[in-house]
Structures are given as structure tokens and as C-alpha cells.
Amino acid sequence: KQEVTQIPAALSVPEGENLVLNCSFTDSAIYNLQWFRQDPGKGLTSLLLIQSSQREQTSGRLNASLDKSSGRSTLYIAASQPGDSATYLCAVRPGIYNQGGKLIFGQGTELSVKP
Amino acid sequence: NAGVTQTPKFQVLKTGQSMTLQCAQDMNHEYMSWYRQDPGMGLRLIHYSVGAGITDQGEVPNGYNVSRSTTEDFPLRLLSAAPSQTSVYFCASGTGAYEQYFGPGTRLTVT
């Protein structure tokens, strides 16, 4: 059974610091991996999607990497800002074939960026 | 585009009552799904659909029914609400190998 883990559960950094959030999964048979951001009391906002054949994706100050063989993904945030404070979730779409919109989520990393 | 919309935003039910959470998307997405989010448990898949007329169970389907008669709508029915169904419910949609988009959520309390 696929399981997704995010460590640490919470992280506090000063503004301007570069940081890395970690996501690990137990089964390397994934179709893709998606990183989300969730603000308190809000829905999920998609940040980056990495297909199983890709190694990384970039959007602005965000860079996500994927290493299927080791079951790991990282989300790198450059020059963090207080507005980056939120919970970051990673989710895998399991299986080597497209099985629809099924996602398995980690429990998230709650990020706080202090001014 | 409105994206993924969910109604209501908040709901309080008494144990044993039934209700339907509505989800609609205007992006012509083939895939739609329902998740619940609970503290310490993360988001878990309840039911999903890969197209009109096709639905399947996720990780926690008990106590919930779905149907998908149109591409746009994917309602979630609680048959007889229980306090264990107190949660935040999210609907999502997507297509092909691409991103899944989430609605704003429905906060449900069952007393």
C-alpha cells in the first residue's frame, strides 16, 4: 500500500532563507507527484506537478525534484517570504498507468516564515 | 471559469440526518473526486469518477454515496450522518495526466 510521509511536520525560518521540504513515498510506481499549498481554512492550491518521467519542475522561486528510485521528492523555496507561510502538501498519483484523479497525500509541512 | 465550486461552505447536521454536498466544475474535466481532511489523518479519498456514469470507491467510502450523471457535477451524499463524519470535505477535478484542482471545501459538523 502506497504511503506518503512529509518531514518535518512544522518548520519555522527567518525571512530570506532558502529552504527544502521533504516528501517520501513507499512505492516507486507512481504516475506523477503534485505539490500543493494550503492556507488556514482554505482549499488547496496547486504549485507544481512532476510527471514520473521528469526529474524536476520550476515555477518562480519554487523548484520541485523527483527521485522515483529512492521514493523521494523535495520542494525548494528560494528567498522565503512571510507570504510563503502555509501548509505544504505533497500527493502522489499511484500506479504506472493513469487511474484517474486518485491522489494519496502526505500529512503536510506547516511552514512559518518570520519577518 | 469559476473552476471547482462547492456548496454549502458550512453545514451542521444532527446524527441520522441525510444531506448532499454539491460539487461542480466548468473546465470539462473528466476526473472528479471527493476527499475528507481530518486533523492528524491528512486528506483521504472517499470516492472518485473517471467520467460521467463511472464511479469507484476510494480509501474511506463507507457512509457516502456518489453518482455522476453529467461531466460537470459530482454530488456526495451522506446517507445517515454520524459524528465521525465531522470533517472538511474537498472536491477536486482534473484531466489526463495533468494537475488536479481543488474546490474551497465544505466544513461539516455532525452533532
Describe it for me?
- The complex is a heterodimer of chains A (115) and B (111).
- With 115 residues, chain A is mostly beta strands.
- Helices cover 0% and strands 57% of the residues of chain A.
- Chain A is globular.
- Chain B has 111 residues and is mainly beta.
- In chain B, the strands form 2 sheets. In chain B, strands 2, 4, 5, 6, 9, 10 and 11 form a 7-stranded mixed beta sheet that branches. Chain B has a 4-stranded antiparallel beta sheet with strand order 1-3-8-7, with no helix packed on it.
- Classes of the chains: A mainly beta (115), B mainly beta (111).
- At the A-B interface, β4, β5 and β10 of A face β4, β5, β9 and β10 of B.
User: With helices defined by DSSP (H or I, 4 residues minimum), what is the helix count of chain A?
Assistant: 0
Radius of gyration of chain A: 14 Å
Percentage of residues in helical conformation of chain B: under 10%
Strand content of chain A: over 45%
Count of helical segments of chain B?
0
Helical proportion of chain A, percent range: under 10%
The arrangement of helices and strands of chain A along the chain is EEEEEEEEEEE
User: Main β-sheet of chain B, in a few words?
Assistant: 7 strands, mixed
What fraction of residues of chain B sit in β-strands?
over 45%
- Most residues in contact: chain pair: A-B, 24 and 29 residues
Strand tally of chain B is: 11
Average of per-residue pLDDT values of chain A: 95
Which word captures the global form of chain B?
globular
N- and C-termini, Cα separation of chain B: 36 Å
